[in-house]
Design a protein that fits this description.
This protein is mostly beta strands. The protein is built from 6 helices and 24 strands.
């Protein structure tokens, strides 16, 4: 469930060599966070920032706390044994009630839509949203997508304030950001930092990964809260931290708002995510592969296999084709291509720029619905 599960509800399930805790959604992409010692003071609209209070006061009315109640089945293997249950006269598998807290951000005030993490509302039987002015509102789950850890709730739209959505594609390493959420159930808390890295993938946290990495403090209960820039725009949704010792060490991850918004649009329209596919197996371009393919490119996605009868085969794609762009946007890795295709609308045509035999060409491929979506087991803990 939500942020509190890191410490109690799910603590035994999510611990591996490294712990990742879901954090609050970062809503402000352009907001400058308080500078580190020795760092230059950031500018907003050409003027040095002496305080983040004006930005914080504008966005915090759109950030909410989320309380979740639910029931989960006990994982004790003895309780799954029908003979054991019969011996102790247990006719049904044993369930227990759970409680958790998290964070969320209002993204549409007129419709009452709230974006949060999917794991915050996992197994929820009732969801309550608390606004900054201490109103307690019942929330309806519109849909959740574990593959990206994004969920959408709906609350009564009266008197709400939405936080503007930014453009995460414009983020740069070094940009100041704020993380706002409800850590440890304390209520609204603001932390600051910078964008430490972009395009983080291969972490095994979600099925579709393209994380913003930040050193803004993210703690249990921040799950689903926003990552915000100096202009008070949401640029990411905080979802996890790397925590080898169980605490924050300055390595947090947020789902880029551009990806989260694509998921939100599908959840509102369909109540679920309809994954796209083109029918290829892909891998990252490595130096060895680049040498073998004779390409000068250092980034891209290499097609390792084309499925017979797939849209990719019908479009003329071949094994060892190097995909360097999709719809004109450069491809940095196989994970990025997977994300873009997987979150595209079914039936859309996408233009892939490929390199084959040293020559570049454009190929139009139609997105079709994926039949199954394999979900990874999370190796990291969520906040």
């Amino acid at each position: 469930m939500g942020g509190s599960r890191v410490w109690d509800l799910y603590s035994m399930k999510r611990v591996l060599s490294a712990l990742v805790a879901s954090g609050g959604i970062a809503l402000m992409t352009g907001i400058s966070c308080s500078a580190l010692a020795g760092a230059p003071i950031p500018l907003v609209e050409g003027a040095p920032v002496q305080s983040l209070a004006p930005v914080v006061s504008r966005v915090t009315p759109g950030i909410v706390g989320i309380s979740v109640r639910g029931r989960v089945r006990e994982d004790n293997p003895l309780l799954q044994d029908p003979i054991f249950r019969r011996f102790f006269n247990l006719q049904q598998p044993v369930e227990r009630e759970t409680q958790a807290t998290g964070s969320g951000v209002i993204v549409d005030a007129s419709e009452g839509y709230v974006m949060t993490n999917a794991h915050v509302v996992e197994n929820a039987s009732s969801i309550e949203v608390t606004t900054k002015d201490n109103r307690h509102l019942k929330a309806r789950l519109i849909g959740r997508d574990p593959g990206t850890d994004i969920a959408v709730l709906q609350i009564s739209p009266g008197g709400l304030t939405a936080v503007p959505i930014g453009n995460s594609d414009r983020l740069q390493v070094g940009d100041f950001v704020l993380a706002i959420g409800n850590p440890f159930g304390l209520g609204q808390t603001v932390t600051s930092g910078i964008v430490s890295a972009l395009g983080r993938s291969g972490l095994g946290i979600e099925g579709y990964e393209d994380f913003i990495q930040t050193d803004a403090s993210i703690n249990p209960g921040n799950s689903g809260g926003p990552l915000v820039d100096l202009q008070g725009r949401v640029v990411g949704i905080n979802t996890a931290i790397l925590a080898p010792g169980g605490g924050n060490i300055g390595i947090g991850f947020a789902v880029p708002i551009n990806m989260a918004r694509q998921v939100m649009d599908q959840l509102i329209r369909y109540g679920e995510i309809k994954r796209g596919r083109i029918g290829v197996a892909i891998q990252d371009l490595t130096p060895d592969l680049a040498q073998a393919l004779g390409t000068k490119h250092t980034q891209g996605a290499v097609i390792a296999r084309v499925e017979p009868g797939s849209p990719a085969e019908r479009a003329g794609l071949r094994t060892n084709d190097l995909v360097i762009a999709i719809n004109g946007a450069p491809m940095r890795s196989g994970s990025e291509l997977k994300n873009r295709v997987g979150l595209s609308r079914i039936g859309d045509d996408v233009e892939l720029t490929i390199e084959r035999g040293g020559q570049e060409r454009n190929v139009i491929v139609r997105i079709e619905k994926a039949t199954t979506t394999a979900q990874r087991q999370r190796p990291f803990r969520q906040r």
